[in-house]
Amino acid sequence: MIRQLYDRDSYTYTYLLVCDKTGQAALIDPVKDNVTQYVQLLKELNLKLVYALDTHIHADHITALSVLRKATGCSTLVSSQGKVNCASGGLTNNACLTIGLLSLRAIYTPGHTDDSYSFYLQEGANGYLFTGDTLLIRGTGRTDFQNGSASDLYESLHNKLLQYPDNTIVYPAHDYNGFTQSTIFEEKYFNPRVKIKDKGAFIQFMAELNLPKPKHIEIAVPANQQCGELDV
Amino acid sequence: MIRQLYDRDSYTYTYLLVCDKTGQAALIDPVKDNVTQYVQLLKELNLKLVYALDTHIHADHITALSVLRKATGCSTLVSSQGKVNCASGGLTNNACLTIGLLSLRAIYTPGHTDDSYSFYLQEGANGYLFTGDTLLIRGTGRTDFQNGSASDLYESLHNKLLQYPDNTIVYPAHDYNGFTQSTIFEEKYFNPRVKIKDKGAFIQFMAELNLPKPKHIEIAVPANQQCGELDV
């Protein structure tokens, strides 16, 4: 079972993944402000949180990893590329995480940041990609901070995420336009950034975005480098 | 396939229901401001919209029913109890709507308003209840306007919606706390209003809420009584 949760302040989607047979669960991209909600929901559904995971060091909200580890005893995993040593362990490309009878695969997808991961879950005939800020619905994450690279993002999109079957459900870390999910098919054919097939043209497009600096980056990044432990 | 869409201004969830085999589709509680998004998504997914439905005359946003009927030729259905004559037809209790090979059942669930409906969809082993404002996640709609009735709401909840199997997915018309879906099990045991088992106590609880008037009610209700046709 997958339960999507929404943080209205940062437009962040958090995902609760549940093995229905064992009651083991994982949270992807939990937000510190919403820990009370997560803990209550875990209790109500009688779940044991085994993992709290971040797709990357976020710049727009503070992660709940550290608080969840203290509250539930779960393992926390963050990108091993992010040189962060506050978590239980580091994600590596193709690492397989066991949540009861579910297997969650970590996929290193740098570009938005140099520590970005996506996750893939297969449940019966259905495949789900949790794409973080690498692939958004009809968009992508930006590449102009935290060692972002439009060249890496192009490779992560075309050589990794878009190689999954067309009917794979896409669950991003954010949406700003009222979408909650998509599919690889839709993003392959209707995502304006994905449709830029020439790598040079994509790099130029990303370089010319000229986006304003994220509001909370100066607070969020140092806090998240400590798994949200830092009081702010 | 069910696709949840979100209107950030009014915290409204709109649902796109798709028969994957035929490409026929329905929209529940579409928002007028988002028509361009709906029409583009229908086109991208190569869907034929056969129905646009409202769970009730909304007080917080303007319905897209009339615009969608003009743009797509779909049928529009609203509660027959609402005495609204702008739609293609009126919903009646237990009416069965055909969307390709899917059957959507209309359930008259008055209480939030006297014209409130819910919808039930069975897809294989999975059941889905689209509960409008009758049953919200860990809450309910209010009952203090549009001929609302706490007594009727109590009956709609306990004698209709909560009679569905525990594993039925609950998809409400709104959420204000970051939830996107629930189950009948969760609402039966963890919804504070549902847990008030005594009908008199429930009526008293609802009477004492003293909520502020919805911001857009004076614009939205008359517009929605014309299926969103009225220019505002």
UniProtKB/TrEMBL annotation, chains A, B:
It comes from the Bacteria. InterPro entries: Metallo-B-lactamas, Mito_Persulfide_Diox, POD-like_MBL-fold, RibonucZ/Hydroxyglut_hydro. Residues 11-174 form the Metallo-beta-lactamase domain. Keywords: Metal-binding. Gene3D superfamilies: Ribonuclease Z/Hydroxyacylglutathione hydrolase-like (3.60.15.10). CDD domains: POD-like_MBL-fold. This is MBL fold metallo-hydrolase. It comes from Catenovulum sediminis.
